[in-house]
Every structure is written in C-alpha cells, then in structure tokens.
Amino acid sequence: MLKPSFQKYRPFEQIDLPDREWPTKVIDKAPVWCSVDLRDGNQALINPMNLEQKLEFFKALCDMGFKEIEVGFPSASETEYEICRELIEGGHIPDDVTIQVLVQAREHLIRKTFEAIRGAKNVIVHFYNSTSTLQRKVVFKKDMAGIIDIAVEGAKLIRELTENFDGDTNIRFEYSPESFSGTEMDYAVEICARVMETLGSTKENPVILNLPNTVEMCTPNTHADQIEYFIKHLPNREAAIISLHPHNDRGTGVAAAELGLLAGADRVEGTLFGNGERTGNLDIVTMGLNMFTQGVDPKLDFHNLPKYRDLFERCTGMHIGERQPYVGQLVFTAFSGSHQDAINKGHEYMENSGTEYWEIPYLPIDPADVGREYEPIIRINSQSGKGGAAYVMQHNFGYHLPKDMHVEFGALVKAACDAAGREITPEEVYQVFETEYRKTPKQYELHTCRFVDSEHINEETGEHDVHFTGSIRVGDREVEVEAIGNGPLDAFFNALPQVGLTGYEFMAYHEHAISAGSDSKAVAYIRLRRPNGKPIYGVGVSRSINRASVKGVLNAINRSVKEEN
Predict the structure, then answer these.
(1) CA distances for 124 relative to 113, 149, 163, 347, angstroms
(2) Separation between Cα atoms, residue 327 and residue 367, nearest integer Å
(3) Residues 153 and 187: beta-carbon distance below 8 Å
(4) Rounded to two decimals, what is the model's pTM?
C-alpha cells in the first residue's frame, strides 16, 4: 500500500538554541541594502534585460538610494561582461555607489571577473560555492573537507588578485555559503571562518558573509535561530558583516528577513517587488515599507512607487499582482461596506482631530506616501455599503452627503451594481445620484422664487419674518403662491398647501458649497417625513442657497410621488 504523499518529506531539523535572544528584539534601524535585481532578478526572467534596460534599471536603483548594487555575473557570458564594462567605462556609477559582481569559486571565472571590474572605483567581489548537505551528496559528491577546499582556494586567489590589482579600485570581499539554509550550522560556521582567515578579514576591513536562504525550507523563526546560532559561534565576529539573502519558496521571505535582522544580521540582499527564481527573492519594497509603517526610516526612497512599478514591468516583462503589498493596483482599495464606512470615518477623524499620526482603519499606510494619492481608495460593487458611496461622492465630486442620507443613497447604488452585475465606476455612482436627486420627474417644479423680509417681527426670534412669493408648476399648469414664515424654508412650507401638498413634515437640513470662488454653487439636502410617516431625502443645487433649499424640498416630494406611482 502506498504511503500518503506528504510522508516522503522530512521535517526540517530545528536549531538547539535555548538561550535565543531575537524574540525580544525590535527593528529600529534600516540594514545595509543591496539590490540584486540586475543579477539574481535578471537571471530569473523569461527574457533577460538588454543593455539599455539594465542601464535604466541601474539608474533607478541609484535614484532610490541603493549604495550597493549587484550588477551581474560578468564571467558567465560575453553579454554580462560587456554590461559590466559599459557601466564602468560609460561613467554610469555614482562615486558613492559600490557595484557588486558575482562569481563561482573557480579560478578561470575569478580571473575573468577581475578583468571585468578594472577601472571601477568601488567593487564588492562576491564569490560562492554551495555547502548544503543535499548539494554535497547529489551534485558535488564531495565531503565537507572537499567543499571547504573549494572556498579556501577561491579566497586565496581573490586575495592575491586584489593585492596585485592595478589602479585605485577599492575592492571588498563577500562570501556566500550557497544553500546556507540547508547546511549544518557548525559546518557553515567552520567554512566561513576559514574563508575569513584566508582573506585576512579585520574589524577595519570586514568581509561580508552572506547567508542565503537559497531555498526557503523552514519557518521564519527557525531561520532566525540559524542566523543567531551562526553569529554566536562565529570566531572574530567583529570582522564580518552578516548579510541575508532570503528566497520566498514558502511565501515567508519578508518574515524570514525581518526575523533575521532581529537575530543580528547587518545587511539584506533582495529585489524590487520580489522578482527572482521560483517564487522569488526577498521583496525589498515590502520590507522597507514595513519599517516605514513602524516609524523607522528605511533609507530608501519609495515616494513614487507607480513610477518604479511601471519601470519594473516594462524592463522585466513581469506583472505585479493586484494584491502585491503597497504597490498592487488594489491594495488601497476597499469594496467591503464595513471597510468603506470605517475608512470614511477615519478621514473625517483625521480632518477634525488634527492628529499628527496616521489613524485610518484598514489603511496601514497613507497612499500619498508612496505616490498613490490620486488613485481611488474606495470602489463600488454589490458588496459595498453606505459609507463607500458617500466617500465617492465626497472625494470625487465634492458632495458631503449627510450621515442619515448614506443608507438611502447606498441602497440606490447597490441596486445599480446588482443591475450591472459588476463593479461600477465613480462616474456611474454620480449618475445614480444625478438620476435620482437631480433629474427626478418633476410633478412639482419651482418656476419663480423671491424671499423678502416682511413687516412682521417674530416674537420668538425678534427678527422679521420672511415673505415668500413665487410660482410652482404642477403638471401642465402654473400656480402662484405666497406665504410668510420664520425663515425661507418655513415660508415655502407654508405655501405648499396652496398647490395641494399637505402632510409633509420638515426633519433636517444640511448645506455646503460644492465649488470655490465666484462660480460656486450651493447644495442643500432636505429630509422630509412623508404623509405615510417614512422619511425621504431631496437635493437642490443653485447659486442661491435659498433657491437650492426650495428645490431640495420639491425634489424630495417628487421622489415620494414617483415611488407612490
């Protein structure tokens, strides 16, 4: 009988680290970042970037603030070699940026790499060989000593070529025990210590020890245990910069890197938006902005993510998913009614409280901080609620619907979504508003309207009552009306029985301007109680606030008549 398929996998061996310290730490500063987009990311593309695309991408990385950039594997092909040469000879590398070149720990490849970097100002020579148990057994068929010999011989040659290198190039060293994640920890410590000794690493001239999570094989907490164990057992720790290079096979690359920093790492290698082989590399944008949301400066400029998203997709041919953290098209979009309502209330709270902190539910970061202030946060479909429709009307069109009106208008918008069978656009939301509140069939329509102070002094207010005169079209006839009241709306209400309208009761009134300057208009929201006892809203818009109010009353009445018919 066949065993269940999951039983062919061995559980990952845990690290014996009873005195682990990383769980009590916090990330309070940015690591040294190294972009590997042009090498690790590029080699994972269906169609690798050409020279022009690599140069454009390199410049963008410099603009974002990267000071260490892995530009390629110049010994791997003539194309990679020529790209490295163009970066150097073409003067594309800023003086404060260090380029990094990758090479296997093999003599002819190392020599070719040193040819490729001549003339550069600052270079990291990054050499590696695989050390994992599985690679030793399956690929190299060597024991531990044989793998150490490969690393040490490579280190000897690199040190010799550096000491005899012509020119003023500042060369630093980086060593990666590739597949560190699958290597016995004591063995990883041993091989790295031997490399450090061979290179002559000191506190003043430290080697970068890059510990790749080449294939993510365990939970992030176990990876943190690996990093802390390695650091605690590494001789001459002060002569090494501990670097992380996480991949994302288990979908937890960012978490592994964050916990790796807690465990004592100093440096992180990754790519923009997580491009890389299989499920990708660490996403530096996500990790950096995670720090940003905790009040930590990531030391990288993310203020225009749409620009870098467009560059990335154009140069790599890859697509960034709609739900990719911080940059995906929909990550700042709410369809859920309860989410929309909370976001809307959050905006109101921010405006009214004067808080210095970002405090809007469901939005962990201000979209404006990453260049997305003009994109819709709330979008409307059949799952949307009253707050979403109100938000769209306010932020897209300047209409501040009264709170009591949200339920009524939200139901109208939901019905429109159901009828369309899809998401509807802000313009379509506005059309629902226009159709229902501005273009309702007018059984009763204001024709003329005039308000003046009457001679009568109101005993309660001590002010003149208001005298309304005007005409209302009722069907195909026009009726002259007039009345007196303690204000414009009261006077108009008192005139309604003259056209046969009785039983309506005024409940609430809100108004505001919907544009600025001399051409501004007023909008009035009128809530009436109908003769059947049910409330209904009407909206009026005019350059005159009194006329807008009167039109709002008639709009509510016309909507009521339409429902009855």
Answers:
(1) 11, 22, 14, 48
(2) 10
(3) no
(4) 0.78
